[in-house]
Specification:
Blueprint (H helix, E strand, L loop, with lengths): L6 H18 L7 E8 L7 H13 L4 E7 L2 E6 L5 H12 L3 E8 L4 H4 L7 E2 L1 H4 L1 E8 L1 H22 L6 E5 L2 E5 L3 H14 L3 E6 L6 E6 L1 H26 L5 E5 L3 E7 L4 H8 L4 E6 L10 E5 L7 E5 L4 E2 L3 E8 L5 E7 L1 H12 L5 E17 L6 E18 L7 E4 L5 H13 L6 E9 L1 H55 L2 E2 L1 H14 L1 H15 L4 H33 L2 H33 L10
Parallel strand pairs: 5-23
Antiparallel strand pairs: 1-3, 1-4, 2-3, 6-12, 6-22, 7-8, 8-10, 9-10, 11-12, 13-16, 13-19, 14-15, 17-18, 18-21, 19-20
Helix pairs in contact: 1-12, 2-3, 6-8, 8-11, 12-13, 12-16, 13-16, 14-15, 15-16
Length: about 625
């Protein structure tokens, strides 16, 4: 028969539509505004403390939906978005300084939908809110770190040429090395200046006071600082991608600042811990008993055991050599981090361990932090905040080298699975080229997002209503088929975006409105073709068949060209343009399915099973 589908096609359409219904439904259950409470150390609070917070909120007229313990953190759900900021302040005052209170959003998807792994669409910063950070790159620390790397390489070079030196010291942009006599200093200058052309060299003193001063030129300093900002940009983007944040923004602002915006993230505590972490690793050999004091440094273990160890000042490799890292558990159930090194790092590790079997190697954890101190001017009484940077160094592990190591090995001695997961994340995303400090942080509330969502939904509703009325007036019964397909198209579009984790922004809503208008184009082409075939004298069944078959090529051609434009927009555009391109691309694909298959199925079920005397088209 001309206008009949086989059973499998009807079943396929039914399965696709059922799939669309299930995965679009979570969007009817928006996340609840909530406050997240935990101890200052990040542990879960006692239930009595949570009950005390709930009672305090109730006493202040704030309605509470309930409290849930998720991933070791308590989420107190609220009824109203407007109460969120006030609830945070009340909870912080109730719990005191020993607890941490942050804004968050609690998933409200019913359990039976979660069983299908169904979740609502991700909303962008303009719709859902999120966090905004302004970060400052420590330019002085970038220079110091570069000088420390150069100093380590110079010491290794001098030892290889058996040139004696006594001490290395860094002061600002200058690296100084002391020697026992002028002959050793002059020989060192000839050797070092050949491999390190970025310095201005100056010899000073003589005899046992001979020293070589090496100062970075202004051009090199500028290059180091510019590299530090660009490298930090790359590292921060990698960290944000690891967090799974959709449509984030990480961009440079001015010579030394970076702006980070994370849509949908309201837990500033967790975001700061990952984004602002300046941790890195150093792998060093434990010092021998006869090693001179100027070539060793002493460090304590981070686990608070009180133990310490003397390490060589020279670094085998740093976390920069890590190509991949993952967290797991060892044979005793303790957390560990599995590390793979790049080619250079693997070579250096193999060279160092091959000649030191039986010797201890330490993993040193380094973290740059800062402390803000309020300083009052004694004359004016004006208060200013002074940031004092400092560095914490501690040993993670100290293990005996049993055999030569290569590109893969593991780190043990970590306190918790959380610490292992965060360390693996930081190593995967790369270490920062220089420490960064938070200059400004703020949570972007949902009030603007709620208004944007309301207006966006209104625009979709108006556009949908106008299209529905036009199709009914123009094509009567066939207009009903097109309108049903239009509604199903919108359902499938939302379902696919939800499944892919695509981010909906205001430009994305504009893409949906445009898709609704374009979705009926295919039906218009088909219906007009059916009218034309009827005017040419074909029977009703023949006209229906010819209308769908002969309009197919035109529909595909028109939609492919639009899809190509959307792909180009996505590939070269920025955040808002990408959001528009995503919704447009998905909408084109779903509209082709509903226009060509769903409406054809409805036409076949209505007219294909019996002779028709008249078409209401």
């Amino acid at each position: 028969m001309l206008n009949r589908y086989p059973l499998w096609k009807y079943l396929l359409i039914l399965v696709v539509l059922l799939f669309g219904l299930i995965y679009s439904l979570p969007n009817l259950f928006p996340a609840d505004p909530a406050i997240q409470v935990s101890s200052a150390q990040g542990d879960a609070l006692d239930e009595r403390e949570v009950s005390r917070v709930q009672q305090a909120l109730a006493d202040n007229g704030i309605e509470v939906k309930g409290a849930d313990l998720e991933n070791g953190l308590w989420l107190i759900r609220l009824e109203n978005n407007d109460d969120q900021l006030n609830a945070r302040d009340i909870a912080a005052e109730t719990l005191g300084p020993d607890a941490t209170v942050a804004l968050n959003l609690a998933d409200a998807t019913p359990g039976w939908l979660q069983a299908f792994s169904a979740s609502p669409m991700t909303l962008g910063l303009d719709l859902r809110g999120g966090v905004h950070f302004l970060l400052e790159v420590d330019m002085d620390a970038a220079i110091t770190q570069r000088l420390e790397v150069n100093a380590s390489a110079m010491r290794e070079l001098l030892r290889g040429e058996r040139i004696r030196y006594r001490n290395t010291e860094i002061d600002g942009q200058t690296l100084s090395i002391d020697f026992a006599n002028s002959e050793d200093r002059d020989a060192a200058r000839r050797l070092i200046s050949r491999d390190f052309p970025d310095f201005d060299y100056q010899s000073s003193g003589g005899g046992r006071s001979a020293s070589l001063d090496m100062t970075l030129s202004d051009q090199i300093v500028s290059e180091i600082q510019d590299y530090a900002v660009n490298q930090n940009l790359t590292t921060l983007r990698n960290r944000v991608n690891e967090l799974g944040v959709a449509e984030p923004m990480v961009q440079r602002q001015g010579p030394s600042q970076i702006v980070v915006e994370l849509p949908g993230i309201q837990d500033t505590v967790a975001a700061k811990r990952i984004v602002g972490a300046t941790a890195n690793l150093e792998f060093r050999l434990e010092a021998r008993g006869d090693t001179p004091d100027q070539e060793t440094e002493s460090f304590a273990f981070r686990n608070g055991s009180g133990r310490s160890a003397d390490l060589m000042r020279d670094v085998i490799i740093t976390g920069d050599s890590v190509s991949s890292a993952s967290n797991s558990f060892d044979e005793n159930g303790r957390p560990q981090v599995n590390i793979n090194l790049d080619g250079t790092g693997g070579t250096l590790m193999n060279r160092a361990t091959r000649t030191n079997i039986g010797r201890n190697m330490a993993v040193l954890f380094i973290e740059h932090k800062s402390e803000d101190t309020v300083v009052t001017d004694p004359e004016t009484g004006e208060e200013t905040i002074v940031r004092e940077p400092y560095t914490e160094r501690g040993l993670i592990s100290l293990a005996t080298i049993q055999s030569a190591l290569g590109n893969s090995f593991r780190i043990t001695g970590l306190d918790s699975p959380t610490e292992a997961a965060e360390l693996a994340l930081l190593l995967r995303s790369g270490s920062l080229a220089a420490p960064i400090y938070f200059v400004q942080e703020r949570t972007i509330g949902p009030s603007l997002g709620a208004e944007n969502i309301q207006r966006g939904l209104l625009s979709v509703q108006i556009g949908l209503l106008l299209v529905v009325l036009f199709m009914l007036a123009r094509y009567k019964v066939f207009g009903i088929f097109a309108n049903i397909a239009l509604g199903l198209n919108l359902t499938l579009l939302v379902a696919v975006m939800s499944m892919l984790g695509a981010t909906l922004t205001l430009p994305g809503i504009a893409g949906i409105v445009l898709t609704l208008g374009m979705a009926v184009d295919a039906n218009v082409l088909i219906f007009e073709r059916i009218r034309e075939e009827l005017r040419n004298g074909l029977s009703i069944q023949q006209a229906l068949h010819a209308g769908y078959e002969r309009a197919f090529t035109s529909i595909v051609d028109a939609n492919i060209t639009t899809l190509l434009v959307a792909v180009i927009l996505f590939s070269i555009g920025s955040g808002p343009v990408k959001g528009f391109a995503v919704t447009l691309s998905i909408g084109i694909l779903t509209s082709m399915f509903t226009a060509l298959m769903v409406t054809r199925a409805m036409v076949n079920l209505t007219y294909g099973r019996r002779p028709a005397k008249k078409l209401w088209i």
